[in-house]
Design goal:
Blueprint: E1 4-8, H1 13-18, H2 20-29, E2 34-39, H3 41-48, E3 55-58, H4 68-79, E4 85-88, H5 93-101, E5 106-110, E6 121-123, H6 135-145, H7 163-176, E7 183-187, H8 200-214, E8 217-220, H9 227-239, E9 244-246, H10 253-261, E10 265-269, H11 272-279, E11 284-287, H12 293-296, E12 303-306, H13 325-328, H14 332-342
Parallel strand pairs: 1-2, 1-4, 2-3, 4-5, 5-6, 7-8, 7-10, 8-9, 10-11, 11-12
Helix pairs in contact: 2-6, 4-5, 7-10, 8-9, 8-14
């Protein structure tokens, strides 16, 4: 029997998807290891669908010292599993504290945020320019510096190996919703802040054009916090006579994966939904403004990024302090046209 390894997952969906190549590299290096992913509930189902992983445990969902009792209880639980090594993908102090309290013999992660003393292998953080800029390489570099891989792979795409199985489950789920025609997916939210969000009017016009062209229903996806955006988009599309379903806050992550996998195309901001669609092989048009697609762009074989160059981008602000010119410059017709080109 191989070693028992615990992998502490990133906390956000997009980051979780971008960690998959590193987890695959660990599996390749340790084919007989028992790999357990420790993930917050919001992303745990992603790893439950990954055949690379043997088991998934949930980490405390709340952030901060007010959650110290849950951290201590989880540490006691982890001690019972007798893990030999833990890998920390998040940068947080709290994630290192949990595994230190769990007394896992070997704990490796980046040395940052004042947590180096809790790691048995505190690995220096890459300096700018040392590795390719995409976030997926940040996780892979941790594994390389640990000596588990010899060099960084050239990533062409991040792909869920069981995407077809998820897609077939999605077809059955859509039938339960009494929909069997083409679906245009739209994800109008973005967890980081409003600066990353393209206008609801833009999404409405672009998705309406696609729906008419394809004879499709529009499905709006998002978290519970995106529900107001989903209602606004639903209202605008309904006025145009476009058949639309709003699933914001109404699906688990696993259900969302299944429904998303069957979409003909997804229109999205820079978001977790964008990364998930790309990994599922769904044609994806991603609208970028204040963030850099070289760092967080979708890694898929059928993806197209739309970004207009402006002097202040990428600023990475959560809220635009001026006129949101990076997003206002993007027109609905160019988004729709990019989607149609992907579908050819």
């Amino acid at each position: 029997m191989g070693p028992r390894l615990l992998l502490r997952a990133p906390n956000w969906l997009g980051d979780a998807v971008m960690s998959l190549p590193a987890i695959a590299a660990i599996r390749q290096q340790f084919p007989s290891a028992h790999l357990t992913v420790l993930a917050r509930p919001a992303v745990a189902e992603l790893y439950l669908r990954d055949p690379t992983v043997d088991a998934v445990l949930t980490a405390p969902s709340r952030i901060g010292w007010s959650n110290w009792r849950a951290i201590w209880q989880k540490a006691k639980e982890l001690r019972q599993h007798a893990y030999q090594c833990a890998v920390l993908f998040p940068n947080s102090f709290e994630s290192a504290l949990l595994l230190w309290l769990a007394a896992i013999p070997e704990r490796l992660g980046y040395r940052r945020d004042g947590r180096g003393w809790m790691l048995t292998r505190a690995i220096p953080t890459p300096r700018p320019g040392e590795i390719p800029p995409h976030q997926a390489y940040y996780y892979l570099e941790l594994i390389r510096r640990a000596g588990w891989i010899a060099h960084l792979p050239q990533l062409q795409a991040i792909e869920l190996t069981n995407a077809e199985e998820i897609r077939q489950a999605g077809y059955r789920r859509w039938q339960e919703h009494h929909l069997d025609g083409p679906i245009v997916g739209v994800s109008p939210g973005a967890a980081y802040g409003s600066a990353k969000r393209w206008s609801i009017e833009g999404f409405a016009k672009a998705s309406a054009r696609l729906a008419r062209n394809l004879g499709a229903t529009v499905a709006i996806f998002g978290s519970a916090s995106d529900a107001p955006l989903g209602e606004r988009l639903l209202g605008q599309l309904s006025k145009e006579g476009i058949p639309t379903r709003n699933y914001c806050g109404r699906t688990s992550l696993g259900e969302f994966m299944e429904l998303l996998a069957c979409c003909r195309v997804l229109l999205s901001n820079d978001s977790g939904a964008m990364h998930l669609a790309a990994a599922l092989g769904v044609p994806t048009v991603a609208v970028f403004g204040p963030t850099d697609p070289k760092v967080t762009g979708p890694l898929g074989r059928r993806c197209h990024v739309i970004q207009h160059p402006v002097s202040c981008a990428p600023c990475k602000h959560r809220e635009c302090p001026i006129d949101h010119r990076c997003m206002r410059a993007i027109q609905a017709d160019e988004v729709a046209e990019a989607a149609l080109q992907l579908l050819k």
